[in-house]
Design brief:
This protein is mainly α and 74 residues long. It contains four helices and no strands.
Length: 74
């Protein structure tokens, strides 16, 4: 496993701050549509994503799918 260097970390944080400055200027209804689209994409792939979560985290399949469903609900 390779950890990020301090330089990489600082670049990611700087990009996050820059992206937030843009995102916060997007009108709330448009931001809501993006969030809805993300939820719909998760719904379409809920089972395969849940299976991946179960393999990665050592959970049973139902728990993995439950984790994905929780992301959708949020």
């Amino acid at each position: 496993m390779q950890l990020a260097s301090r330089k990489n970390y600082e670049a990611v944080v700087a990009k996050s701050v820059e992206s937030f400055a843009t995102w916060r200027n997007v009108p709330a209804p448009k931001r809501g549509l993006v969030v809805r689209d993300q939820g719909n994409a998760l719904r379409e792939k809920c089972e395969p994503l849940g299976e991946m979560v179960s393999l990665e985290m050592g959970k049973i399949r139902a728990e993995g799918i439950g984790e994905v469903q929780e992301m959708i609900d949020i």
